[in-house]
Specification:
This protein is mainly α. It contains nine helices and no strands. It folds into two domains: about 70 residues; about 130 residues, no CATH class. The relative contact order is 0.12. It comes from Streptomyces kanamyceticus.
């Protein structure tokens, strides 16, 4: 075989190897993106929007969350503690009619406390706690984000949402969204019947809870 033929063969091999590497690299990125999108659901879209549509930046962000918190194992919650949390939420719901802002603030505290009790970063590290929750409760974590912002007064409701129907509605929506995450945290995996042991009893009883998934009760 001539020297020229050897050089040509080497060049062909190099080109084929480079093309294969590019294909594998692209395939890996696509698979990772699809996997992250399945795992995070709506949180994937929110993260993408926060990164102004930059897919690589969004997936890098989500990938880092998985690395930091993916191995977290939820701690068990004893029945007595579950009952206490459920009862406190029911009281917060009832308070919503008279004082939406106080009810939302209590809901924010409850989610943070319950998350800490289940083994997530404690409430003193909100961003880290939120990231960890997004890995394990991606479809409902936005409820915590919403109620936390509402509790901090960033919804535009003002200091007296009771006098502002639009503001009250924003607080109601935030509390309803947070309830979905609260229910997930309260329940043991595989035991959906444990989601709301007492709060449904309060909600369906004679006293008004003040807020439901459909809207604020008046009377």
């Amino acid at each position: 075989m001539s020297t020229v033929m050897i050089i040509v063969l080497i060049a062909v091999v190099v080109v084929l190897a480079a093309a294969t590497g590019v294909a594998v690299s692209r395939g890996g990125r696509t698979g990772g993106g699809r996997s992250l999108k399945r795992r995070f659901g709506p949180e994937y879209d929110r993260t993408l929007a926060r990164h102004d549509g930059d897919t690589r930046a969004a997936e890098r962000d989500l990938g880092e969350r998985v690395k930091r918190h993916g191995s977290l194992r939820t701690l068990p919650l004893d029945p007595a503690a579950r009952e206490r949390y459920a009862a406190r939420w029911a009281v917060a719901q009832e308070r919503f009619v008279e004082s939406p802002s106080e009810a939302v603030a209590e809901a924010d505290r409850l989610v943070a406390e319950l998350a800490g009790a289940r083994g997530f970063p404690d409430s003193g590290h909100y961003e880290d706690q939120l990231d960890a929750l997004s890995v394990h409760h991606a479809h409902h974590v936005h409820g915590y984000r919403s109620v936390h912002r509402a509790a901090l007064g960033t919804t535009g409701a003002g200091k007296n949402p009771e006098e502002n129907p639009a503001g009250t509605e924003e607080l109601r929506a935030a509390m309803v969204e947070a309830r979905a995450l609260f229910d997930d945290l309260l329940a043991d995996k595989g035991d959906r019947s444990a989601t709301r042991p007492d709060s449904d009893k309060h909600a369906s009883g004679k006293r008004s809870t003040g807020i439901t998934r459909r809207g604020v009760q008046h009377g």
